[in-house]
Design a protein that fits this description.
alpha/beta, Rossmann fold, 2 domains, six-stranded parallel sheet, 43% helix, binds 1,4-dihydronicotinamide adenine dinucleotide, binds oxaloacetate ion
Length: 314
């Protein structure tokens, strides 16, 4: 069984750790935060649900002690600031880039073989930064955004169409940003029936797309900080696909070398996730409109990546 570390014991990191523990995804779980006592407290709290929820994952919470993370098979990086209402994810780059870079370098020192999953925002540039800063192969460092965005897409589709959300299939690709994500309506279906067949009212599907794109912003406005239940569960789902070598196809932020016509960028595309991390990009046929949106999305992500050089983290 696997050892998993979650860095950042805030809303998303602790939720991810809770899902990993209760679902017994790994045999050993480490939660690390820079704030004294927070990881220790959250792990103790989670441990006190063990007899209530019937699980027995070995868990430890530590304050900035990277030695405790040694030999991890998977590391999830959630450390950094979340946005406040009215902000974009991209605005977090100045404060989060240094945090993500330092954390990734510390992880590398103790777990050079770990698959590193980036969650901190702006997630696409943070993934690019972690990949470049660690110099690890592209399968070993990738980002989580599409898993969450796709879950939201399916949620909004199920509400709009009045169907069980577990019968809905759908993917969101592109950047993990309010204007950069691309819900693939052409590929979405309910029990194999295209949603475009089930719903002839284009305005309904257009609204689902718009709601999905601002899914994170909507929750940030309601909560005063960004969401954590679905983000934590989405990261845990990706970890489970790695640990159990499930080979799920999950839209994930991976480094592209020609796929989807893009080079030298980390951005969301359907990817096979297994024991070796981001194992294979799956190229699906996009409509002309989706292709154009993907190019625009990549352009915007590249623009944010350029800031990494300006602020001297790359
Ligand atoms: N990729 C995605 O789909 C999503 C990404 N996010 C992002 O995840 C990040 C975390 O969000 P929340 O958990 O809500 O924030 P939070 O503020 O609740 O937690 C962040 C934690 O990181 C810790 N931290 C800061 N610097 C650190 C360091 N150098 N080493 C270790 N820990 C450190 C803080 O002490 C804090 O406990 C944010 O950047 C947010 O935007 C949030 C939701 C979805
Ligand atoms: O909205 C945010 O800032 C956090 C996030 O990435 C999400 O929930 O999708």
């Amino acid at each position: 069984m696997a050892k998993v570390t979650v860095v950042g014991a805030g809303n998303v990191g602790a939720t991810c750790a809770n899902v990993l523990a209760t679902r017994e995804v790994c045999s050993e779980l480490v939660l690390l935060d820079i704030k004294e006592g927070v990881s220790e407290g959250k792990i103790l709290d989670i441990f006190q649900t063990a007899t209530l929820m019937d699980f027995d994952t070995n868990m430890v919470g530590v304050t900035n002690d990277y030695a405790a993370t040694a030999g991890s098979d998977v590391v999830v990086i959630t450390s950094g600031m979340p946005r406040k209402p009215g902000m974009t994810r991209e605005e977090l780059i100045g404060v989060n880039a240094g945090i993500v870079k330092t954390v990734a370098e510390n992880i590398l020192k103790h777990s050079s073989k770990a698959i590193i999953l980036i969650v901190s925002n702006p997630m696409d540039p943070m993934t690019y930064l972690a990949l470049k800063a660690t110099g690890l192969p592209k399968n070993q460092v990738f980002g989580m955004g599409g898993a969450l965005d796709s879950a939201r897409f399916k949620c909004y589709l199920s509400k709009a169409l009045g169907v069980n959300s577990n019968d809905v299939d759908g993917m969101v690709i592109g950047g993990h940003g309010d204007t950069t994500m691309i819900p693939l309506v052409s590929k979405a279906s309910v029990k194999g029936v295209p949603v475009t067949e089930l719903c002839k009212d284009k305005a309904v599907l257009d609204k689902v797309v718009a709601d999905t794109m601002v899914g994170g912003a909507t929750l940030t406005k309601l909560l005063g900080t960004s969401a954590w239940y679905a983000p934590g569960a989405a990261a845990a789902m990706v970890v489970e696909s790695i640990v159990r070598d499930q080979k799920k196809i999950v839209p994930s932020c991976v480094y592209l070398e020609g796929e989807y016509g893009q080079q030298d960028i980390c951005i969301g595309v359907p990817t096979v996730i297994g024991r070796n991390g981001a194992e294979k990009v799956v190229e699906v046929a996009l409509t002309a409109e989706e292709k154009e949106a993907f190019e625009k999305s990549a352009e915007a992500v590249r623009k944010t990546n350029a800031i990494l050089k300006e602020i001297n983290v790359l």
